[in-house]
Amino acid sequence: MTLLVLMIAYLSLLFISLLVALEYDFNIITHTISDLGNSLSTPIPFLFDWACVIAGIITIPYNFFIRKSVIYKPAGSSLKAKILHSSSFIGISCGIIGGFGYICVGVFSLERAGPNGTFHGVCAAFVFFGFVFSILCFCLHAVLRHAYITKGFGICGVIIPSVLFMLNFIFNIPLLEWLLLFSILIHICPLNYWAVIK
Predict the structure, then answer these.
(1) What percent of the chain has pLDDT over 70?
(2) pTM recorded for the entire structure
(3) Given Cys at both, which of 43, 69, 174, 179 links 198, Cβ 3.0 to 4.6 Å?
């Protein structure tokens, strides 16, 4: 229950910081997500910093809950079982990387980004890489379940964040970055919720 409350707190801080920034000519077409932590774009950059730190902290334990409750575990020691076991381990590892990266994004915001923004840029890369591949690995298990809703969710989780991640890497424009964030939230929040209630 504590983790769910913290997840709600994170989402609230994120959207409040976005709503406030929108009142100061902030635009997701021209401003990156990280601009929410810049006092040149918003009067309350600390809200976004807090949101990042909270999200990073709660994401790390969530990965272990997901492994216990969401992972598909076929019987036997077939190649399929071994691949799925490996993918669950990779999913946890990537999720932890994404969590630590998110904490560091809050610490090294654009106003504390290091030389030429290096610290912030590296941390942000870890966040997107970690979360996208964590979702991909966990949703692969969802695809193999028999329930149609779970299977459909899994297929979307395997395809959508991965495609947006590649497009964002190629074109590197703010709107794609925002779409990538929303795709991560749409998939990681239900995974986290299912992990806790089971």
Answers:
(1) 87
(2) 0.88
(3) 69
